[in-house]
Amino acid sequence: MSTEGGTKAVVAALLANSGIAVTKFVAWLLTGASSMLAESIHSVADAGNQGLLLLGGKRSQRPATANHQFGFGRERYIYAFIVAIVLFSVGGLFALYEAFHKYEEVHAGEENQLLESSYWWVPIVVLVAAIVMESFSFRTAIVESNRSRGTASWSTFVRRAKSPELPVILLEDFAALVGLVLALMGVSLTLVTENGYWDVAGTAAIGLLLVVVAIVLAIETKSLLLGESASPDHQVKIEEGVLASDDVLDIISLRTLHVGPEEILVACKISVRPTDVVNEITDAINAAEERIRATVPEARYIFIEPDIRR
Question: Fewer CB within 10 Å, N- or C-terminus of the chain?
Fold first, then answer.
């Protein structure tokens, strides 16, 4: 998956959500609609999340150090996981809290600010405009994802993608579009029926939606943080490359690990034709592995490659 494609989708989403957040806040201030406040916070959270993804992408490009010898590629996974936490707490839980707070007001018979406001039409206009803007952002994410998705289904793409940016943006934009529709339904039905419970229901539905999406994101990014192997297609190609020579009889063990979205660590032990020289090298490597395990028991996986200093 290209880093450029993910960055383009993130920037498009950041610009869209920043503009949408401002208009939603204005609509909430004018009408007091609970759904508008929930959507406003949702857009702020999304914009902040896109900023986190861009920051993670920038920090992941730092060169390797003595303390981080495989570089900082997995930092993109860390920031993606933080995005899931922000979406769950700032987006989902806040919306559920706002729904509960608004429910108490409606149940107590307090005046509904949306119904009494002369700007009742503002949320409708803002939500429709937001749906249009969010649709353009979602379309960008879909176009960029299709460049690397191939024939895989969308669920498979989200589960197996090694670069976190596009799956995160796809799920966020999808949740944003559905949330906008729910908010529009809640506000519209409140205005038509003059029943504030519809606004409460719309806000609660937005909160539940964001919580579910955040949990899905957390599960997927946790898997990346733990360390995923190369894709089955890449593993097949690696095996084919190893076995392409007649000197290699078999693969004893092969382990792969993504140390970053575009960086794969390959550790392979192969079987070769036995000769006196090969036997000597093999004995030397096995002895070295035994000495390492004797002095450092934590060294569970050891792969030593013989070479000649030139």
Answer: C
